[in-house]
Amino acid sequence: MEQMASARSTGAIDRHVGIRIRLRRRILQMSSQTLAAKLGVTLQQVERYENGASRIGAAGLFSLACTLKVPVGYFFEGFDPALKR
C-alpha cells in the first residue's frame, strides 16, 4: 500500500498549484503584496505558495479562487496525476 506524504511535505501538485497562482496573479497585474493583503497572509506566505514550498488548505484555495476570480479547478488544470509526488 502506498504511504501518504506527510502533511508538511510538498510535491509536484503543490508546485503546479503555485505556478497557476502566480500565472493568474500576473494576468490580473496584481502584486504579490496586494494578494497577500486580500488573503490576510504575509507576503512571504504568498511567495511560499507560489514556489510550492507551502501546501494550501481547502479554505485557502477557495479564498484564492475567489480573490483571483477563477474556479477552484483552475489551479489543477494541466496537472498530470502521474506526477503526484
Could you walk me through the main structural features you see in this protein, from its secondary elements to its overall organization?
With 85 residues, the chain is mainly α. The chain has one domain (12-75): lambda repressor-like DNA-binding domains (434 Repressor (Amino-terminal Domain), Orthogonal Bundle), CATH 1.10.260.40. The chain is 52% helix and 0% strand. The chain has 4 helices and no strands. It has helices spanning 12-27, 32-39, 43-51, 58-68. Helix 1 crosses helix 3 (43-51) and helix 2 crosses helix 3 (43-51). The longest helix has 16 residues, at 12-27. The protein starts with 11 loop residues before the first helix and ends in a 17-residue tail after the last helix. One of its GO terms (molecular function) is DNA binding. This is XRE family transcriptional regulator. It holds the Pfam family HTH_3.
Architecture blueprint of SSEs:
Layout: H1 12-27, H2 32-39, H3 43-51, H4 58-68
The CATH topology? 434 Repressor (Amino-terminal Domain)
Our Rg estimate from Cα atoms comes to 13 Å
What is the number of domains? Answer: 1
From N to C, what is the helix and strand string?
A: HHHH
What is the CATH superfamily label? lambda repressor-like DNA-binding domains
CATH class: Mainly Alpha
The geometry reads as globular
Number of strands: 0
Largest sheet report: none
